[in-house]
Each structure stands twice: as structure tokens, then as C-alpha cells.
Design brief:
This protein is of the alpha/beta class. It folds into two domains: about 130 residues, ornithine cyclodeaminase, domain 1; about 190 residues, NAD(P)-binding Rossmann-like Domain (Rossmann fold). Helices cover about 30% and strands about 25% of the residues. Helix 2 crosses helix 10, helix 3 runs parallel beside helix 4 and helix 3 crosses helix 10.
């Protein structure tokens, strides 16, 4: 049997690679375009709930990107009380495989990948679906993915005003301080949802609710706004989709009926959002098969649940950069 070696990148390696905003966005945008052209395989995520969803659960994501020559499986834990132990709420491992032979090719700490790719999908959604002159961002939530939402959105739009809110004052204040340091601009910290979201050009909801609770009011959404809700438990009023000119998702296979969790779960399960009423998947828009925003007056909602293919894309980018820079380890497998 031939020798098999695995590229291993731990959290320290992932940080040392310091993927730039441009590298992150390019890798994810290419994967989305591949999806739109039908050159990926996305298996709907599955969940492992050890005790109860109140404590947390594991997501298992599986995907293949033809152009990269990788299949991948990511396992990510999502445990809301991890902050009490000084841990991020989401910790993840990504495994990359040769799709021709099944040979394992890489093991990567994917905690940062999860955060970065989520932010990149939010930002790329805005690139195609938000007004080009969007100047005010309202963002609810301060978990790991939230930082990359704001950072990558600001990379594209250079906002005049950024408002943030989360349930715990210490988390929202620390979130704002980090953003001010890294973005070099003032961040407005709000102590309630309305002051954060009302009238914003781009509205992001990344909350961590224990159960569905309609805290995001439809009346706060102005005509022409771009709305991205992706909390595990819905924070939306049921009539929010009634004012939308277009509803876009990342992958209908993961958003369709019978799947657990998600911001539009009730809307889908009760038939308010269907495959027929859906405007498009974001990959169809990125590859040019379907139009994105067509006028400044359109009010558009983008719901993304997380794409395994974007994990694979960022993992592949990290492996390639690590080899060039001599970062990481190689582990003997066989």
C-alpha cells in the first residue's frame, strides 16, 4: 500500500494563515458559482442532539466541489453556554477527502472556517441583493459568525453607520470594541432590537434564542432593505415574507419542508415560502443564471443555513496557502 499523508492545520495554524478578506470572499464566491452551475454536491445537514436542543447540538455537513477536487465533511458543535467556560459557542473539525479514491487529504480546525464562510455568504448575498448605496447596517447577535458578517459587509460597502445588539451587555460591548479596533470606525451599541434594526439598509439577525420568539418586527423593514435572518430559532414575525419582493436561500434542499431549525422554518412548513414562490438559490444568482436585485425599490430576504461546499472551499484555500507558507503539519495515515 502506498504511503498516505494528511495535511493537519490546527487553530494556531489557521490563525497564522491570516486569510485576507479578499481571499475569503473569492473562495466562497467561486464555490457558490459552482453550485449555481450544478458542479457541486450538497447533502442536507444532519444533527446530533446529545441531550436537548436547549444545551446544544452537533451539525454534520457534507459536500463536494468538483473544481477543487475535494469532498468534505464538517462536524460543528453549537453549544450556547460555552461562554461560561471561556469557549466559543461553535467548535468544528473539517475533513477533506479525494473524491476519486476516498483517501483522506486534510484535517483542519474549522472553527474559524465556520465563522468566515458564514460571514462571506452574508456579504456575497448583499453584493448581489442589497442596494449598492447601502450605508446603514443593523446587526443583532455577537457570536463568532457575527464578526465576519460585519467585517466582510463593511469591506464591500464601507458603511457610514453600524449598529449592533446582543442580549448580554458584556458580549455586545466586547463585540463593538473588537469591530472598532479592526474596522477603524465608530460602532453604535444598542440595548434593544428596534434601535439596532429599525430603518437600516441591511438588517442581519444572528441571534441565539432558546425558542422561536418574534422579536424582529416587520414594521421596522423599509422598502428597498436587504434582510438576512439566520438564527437557529426564528426571531421573525410570520408576516415578514409578505412584504418581500424576493426570497432567496442558499440551498433549498436544506431549507425545504421537514428540516429542523431555521429562521423561516414555520414559513416553509406552513406553505408561506415554497419552492415555487422562491426567487432563487444564491448560487444561481452568482453564476448569472437568475437575476439578483433589479431595482432599488425591491425589498429582499436572504436565508442561509450554511453550505458544506463553502467549508470545503475555504478548507482548500487554507491547505493551498499553508503549503506555500510552510505552515501546519503532515501526519502519517498509512
Amino acid at each position: 500500500m502506498q504511503e498516505i499523508w494528511i495535511d493537519y492545520l490546527n487553530a494556531i495554524d489557521a490563525k497564522a494563515l491570516a486569510l485576507t478578506d479578499g481571499e475569503i470572499l473569492d473562495a466562497v464566491e467561486k464555490a457558490l458559482a459552482d453550485q449555481g452551475r450544478g458542479e457541486t454536491v450538497i447533502e442536507p445537514r444532519v444533527h446530533l442532539v446529545p441531550e436537548s436542543s436547549d444545551k446544544g447540538h452537533f451539525n454534520v455537513l457534507r459536500g463536494y466541489v468538483k473544481s477543487l477536487g475535494f469532498a468534505g465533511v464538517k462536524v460543528v458543535g453549537d453549544f450556547v453556554d460555552n461562554y461560561k467556560q471561556g469557549l466559543p459557542s461553535e467548535l468544528a473539525v473539517l475533513n477533506l477527502f479525494d473524491p476519486e479514491t476516498g483517501i483522506p487529504k486534510a484535517i483542519i480546525d474549522a472553527t474559524a472556517i465556520t465563522d468566515m464562510r458564514t460571514g462571506a455568504v452574508t456579504a456575497i448575498g448583499a453584493k448581489y441583493l442589497a442596494r449598492k448605496d447601502s450605508k446603514v447596517l443593523g446587526h443583532v447577535g455577537a457570536r463568532g459568525t457575527s464578526y465576519w458578517n460585519v467585517r466582510l459587509l463593511d469591506h464591500l460597502f464601507d458603511f457610514e453607520e453600524i449598529r449592533v445588539h446582543s442580549r448580554r451587555p458584556e458580549s455586545r460591548n466586547a463585540f463593538a470594541e473588537r469591530l472598532e479596533k479592526d474596522l477603524g470606525k465608530k460602532i453604535i451599541v444598542t440595548d434593544n432590537w428596534q434601535d439596532c434594526l429599525d430603518g437600516a439598509d441591511i438588517m442581519i439577525e444572528a441571534s441565539r434564542l432558546p425558542e422561536p420568539t418574534p422579536l424582529f418586527k416587520t414594521e421596522w423593514v423599509k422598502q428597498g432593505a436587504f434582510v438576512v435572518p439566520y438564527g437557529t430559532m426564528s426571531a421573525l414575525e410570520f408576516n415578514l415574507t409578505d412584504i418581500m419582493n424576493k426570497v432567496v436561500v442558499d440551498d433549498w434542499g436544506q431549507c425545504g419542508p421537514g428540516r429542523p431549525y431555521g429562521a423561516l422554518r414555520r414559513h416553509v412548513d406552513e406553505g408561506k415560502v415554497t419552492e415555487e414562490t422562491l426567487h432563487a438559490e444564491i448560487g444561481q444568482i452568482v453564476c448569472g443564471d437568475r437575476p439578483g436585485r433589479e431595482s432599488d425599490d425591491e425589498t429582499i430576504l436572504f436565508w442561509h443555513r450554511g453550505l458544506s461546499t463553502t467549508d470545503v472551499a475555504l478548507g482548500a484555500a487554507m491547505v493551498e496557502k499553508a503549503r506555500k507558507l510552510g505552515i501546519g503539519q503532515r501526519l502519517r495515515f498509512a
